[in-house]
Specification:
This protein has 350 residues and is of the alpha/beta class. The chain is 35% helix and 16% strand. It has a seven-stranded parallel β-sheet with strand order 4-5-6-9-10-11-12. Strands 1-2-3 form a three-stranded antiparallel β-sheet, with no helix packed on it. Strands 7-8 form a two-stranded antiparallel sheet.
């Protein structure tokens, strides 16, 4: 796919528009995308049963609305998510920017197991498998999903850079890294995007990696910008046994009850503007582009065309400084960590 095939000019966030979305460029890679992407993980697992017909319709509608960055990983559904996306990606190859990831290892006989592998041999095998499942020749944006503590990040990125030189990958990304790790990686090969959880409930990335991304010109791709649904106001306090939020401290017991109370300022703003809580939360994430002076492309996940349209509309909602100040204290009051085991994140390496 040629970067010129994407409509518009788009420098940093807030540039020209295509469809319902402004566009921006992923780092220095020259790949232009709408300023909101779509996280596709939930179409395969993690958040309960999925309607694949509606999920496919959601993909098509996203493209109509100007969403061009579609995010998956080899670990989502143990390959199912890439396979599911393959028909859509191939039908719209000149318009779709597909991002996938490697580095998290699962075991078929232990659904809860999560390991890490960033070794060069594993990376090569992983990209070949992703290319087969997606039925494409080149991944547009290839992420290291998690850092393997046993492999220097310079070695990992060196192996990823070989894939760029071979034409198997267009641009490189990293997920859940620290600012220092991003700088070390970027010195080996330009990093186009860094992906980590960032929302009104999760702001630890602002310590080092957000400033590093801004300084290096790396696009920030916030995952779970709606707090895994908590910030939409739709979480009832109970999660289905197949919903992995039931294992997350913020979603259980007294933590969930206390966190629900934190939505009051969002409701006040939403009611005053006639918008949804989700739109307030997403508008806050989009505002960080202006506040932090970097390109920001959140990837809220949804399997519903209705929620998708609401999410995309949030990209052009501009919160006032007063509203941003009102929302500022929320993250500091959140009860419970992002994961039960925070070694799964970059937080422990800060």
């Amino acid at each position: 796919m040629n970067s010129d095939s994407m409509a518009g000019g788009g420098q940093a966030a807030g540039g020209s528009t295509t469809g319902a979305l402004p566009i921006t460029t992923l780092g220095a890679a020259g790949i232009q995308v709408g300023t909101q992407g779509l996280g596709c993980m939930g179409m395969s697992e993690f958040y309960g049963p999925s309607d694949l017909t509606e999920s496919r319709a959601t993909l098509d509608r996203a493209l109509e609305l100007g969403v061009t960055l579609f995010d998956t990983a080899d670990v989502y559904g143990s390959g199912h998510n890439e396979e599911f996306l393959s028909d859509f990606v191939n039908a719209e190859r000149d318009r779709v920017v597909i991002a996938t990831k490697f580095g998290i290892v699962r075991k078929a006989d232990d659904p809860a197991y999560r390991g890490f592998d960033n070794s060069p041999g594993y990376i090569r095998a992983a990209v070949e498998a992703s290319l087969r499942r997606l039925r494409i020749d080149t991944v547009d944006l290839y992420y290291m999903h998690r850092k393997d503590p046993g492999v220097p990040i310079e070695d990992t990125v060196g192996a990823m850079a070989e894939l760029v030189r071979e034409g198997k990958v267009r641009a490189l990304g990293l997920s859940e890294v620290t600012g220092a790790e991003l700088r070390s990686a970027h010195a080996v090969h330009p990093i186009a995007a860094v992906q980590s959880e960032w929302s009104l409930f999760s702001r630890d990335v602002e310590a080092t990696v957000v400033p590093a991304a801004a300084a290096l010109g790396v696009t920030f791709v916030p995952y779970s910008p709606l707090g895994r649904g908590f910030l939409t106001g739709s979480f009832t306090g109970t999660a289905d046994a197949k919903d992995f939020r039931a294992t997350m401290p913020r979603f259980v017991g007294e933590n969930a009850a206390r966190n629900a109370e934190l939505l009051a300022p969002l409701r006040t703003i939403a009611d005053a503007r006639g918008i949804t809580l989700a739109q307030v939360a997403l508008a806050w994430v989009h505002a960080q582009s202006r506040v932090r002076d970097l390109a920001v492309v959140p990837i809220p996940g949804t399997r519903s065309r209705t929620r998708l349209a609401d999410n995309v509309a949030a990209a052009t909602i501009s919160l006032t400084d007063v509203e941003l100040t009102t929302l500022e204290p929320i993250a500091g009051k959140v009860s419970g960590t992002r994961y039960a085991d925070m070694s799964f994140t970059s937080a422990g390496r800060e």
